[in-house]
Amino acid sequence: MMTHTKKKLFTCEVCNKTFSKQGIFRLHLRTHITEKPYACEICNKKFSLLAYLKTHVLTHLKEKPYTCEICNKAFSYPTDLKRHSRMHTKEKPYSCEMCSRVFAELTNLKQHLMTHTKEKPYDCKMCGKAFSQQGNLKRHLLVHTKEKPYSCNICSKAFSQPRDLRRHLLIHTKEKPYSCEMCSRAFSRLGDLKRHLLSHTNKKPYTCKMCSKVFSQPGNLKRHLLTHTKEKPYYCEMCSKAFSQQDNLSRHLMIHSGEKPYSCAFCNKAFTEQFHLKVHLRTHTKEKPYACDVCYKAFAQQHHLKTHLRMHTKEKPYACIVCHKAFAQEGHLKRHSFMHTNEKPYTCDVCGKAFSTKNNLSRHLMIHSGKKPYSCAFCNKAFTEKIHLKVHLRTHTKEKPYSCDVCYKAFTRQHHLKTHLRMHTKEKPYACDVCHKVFGHKHHLKTHLRTHTNEKPYACDVCHKAFAQEGYLKRHSFMHTNEKPYTCDVCGKGFSQRQNLKRHMVTHTDEKPYKCELCNKAFSLKKALQRHRKTHDPTHLTPCKEKLYACEFCNKMFCLERYLKIHLRTHTKERPFTCELCTKAFSVRQNLQRHLRTHTNEKPYACDMCNKAFSDQGKLTTCATI
Question: Element (H or E) spanning 131, and its range?
Fold first, then answer.
């Protein structure tokens, strides 16, 4: 069955595969031996060699005469004791001839050798997946059969894999046999210790070939690759939801089973995962083990520190594939992407309202429940969310932690700073899909869109007049209530609108900051200057070298297209601005606004000499000259 060649020393006569190492060759030969003539009389398990059967038979004997002198653990065989002792002595007598890696057990070396040969002789007949070891194939088959032969003798929970049972048992025993020599931290699993050791070395030997991102663990790289392939091989049989990782599926299944095995000793709150309990306990202990090296701010969770550090580094690793806008947090990108798709996957069971994010739905549900669990210690005001309480507290503490690097103005909220910065950068990220006009604020775009849709969601309870903006409705409501909340500090006069008070204040200062560039006449109000400009030829309103727009009726030339548009109405008799109350139409918007005051009886222009009020500024000017 064996031949020698110069290039490769050992050739298999069954499959013609060649090997340079005798040990690997011998291991390969066993894959062709399928006959197992030696059967156990107790459990009918079969073996290819008599020695294997003899060793197996001892597992049925309860006698354990071989005891470890260090930890008193007992074993049935001296070989098992010898293997166990290596855990204490750290002895690894088995060395790989190809890469010099050492192992404590021969079986581990044999398994490792398969990584060099890339040989996977054991195929699953159900899905075609191949394995290097028969035991791995056997364990894999349990995924298809749903069989869980390994049961916990403490809580009766069943598992498909023996390693999963071993891992589970550590929950009951609280045993952590693997200790870090650098920081004395203990772990229940060797794999967890190995992963932890990389945090001391900062080594990240595993690189993604698609985006060059590096990882400290092969499992992390494997999980990351699924973000590129979008593969979700793990399905929930109850709701058909798919997952990229088996751990995520296992966690999800607890939603259906309602199982929460980890309880808090302080408040009895239960969790599906031990890690979540560990994080929760810090809310009681106030422990914050993760500190920022830049500003020394401490965090209870590592990913919160990681996110915080991006505030210093300005790193934004998550980019939108539609508009290329970058974000510091993945959740922010996810929320942003719904702006493009208009997707709202989270629906309220009470009122049917849909939301783009789970957090928004959770916040909305508080409206129905009326729950406000977060109270202010200063004024007892209650809030549905902790973050709202945190922001509210700044009204008492006067804390403004967000400062502008350009003008040093400080803000209580981060998004207020973000909005303010656009004043310096002139950034206008929100564009109208209809006319392509751009805006610096999202709510300005929202308001603008109503000029296209003619939507007026804010209706007056008294006269049912509808408005596009909430502010317009608020101002209008003062007309019914005669409320004048804005008072002049100089003369005590009240006004229904802030801008009316602002206009009035100029009458005390005699300030006239608005000057006409054509005749140098000065005005105290910007609107007064705009009205005055109309007394001049519209062609002079904006200085320009060329007058490019000609009227097709009278050949009059205009500097701007909009001036031509207004002029054309004198020929076409078009009156696009209609009063909703009496259907009277006007060619200019300002004329409609003036006309509306005849219905509302609004008289915003008051004479300082006789206190008489007027609906039109022209009448006020006439009064002042008499």
Answer: strand 130-131
Give the torsion through C-alpha atoms of 589, 591, 593, 599, to 10 deg.
-140
Calculate the alpha carbon distances from 94 to 19, 274, 409 in Å.
20, 36, 67
611 by DSSP, 3-state: which? Answer: coil
Contact 187, 195 (CB under 8 A): no
State the burial class of residue 614 (Cβ atoms within 10 Å of its Cβ: 0-12, 13-18, 19+): middle
Provide the token pair at 158: 């069943």
Paired strand residues for 575:
none
CA distances to 171, 255, 272, 276, 512 from 262, rounded to whole Å, are: 9, 14, 6, 9, 72
Nearby residues of 192 by Cβ (< 8 Å), 6 or more positions away: 178
Q: What is the pTM of this model?
A: 0.30
Please give the Cα distance from 382 to 251 (Å, whole number).
33
Radius of gyration of the chain (CA): 39
pLDDT in tens, 582-613: 888 888 877 888 888 787 777 776 666 666 77
User: How do residues 104-158 score in pLDDT, each as one tens digit?
Assistant: 877 778 777 777 777 777 788 877 788 777 777 877 777 777 777 778 887 777 8
Size of the chain, expressed as the number of residues it contains: 626
Q: Kindly give, in sequence order, each residue whose CB lies less than 8 Å from that of residue 460, ignoring residues fewer than 6 positions away.
A: 466, 467, 473, 476, 477, 480
Q: Which value, to the nearest 10 degrees, does the dihedral of the CA atoms of residues 168, 172, 175, 178 take?
A: 20
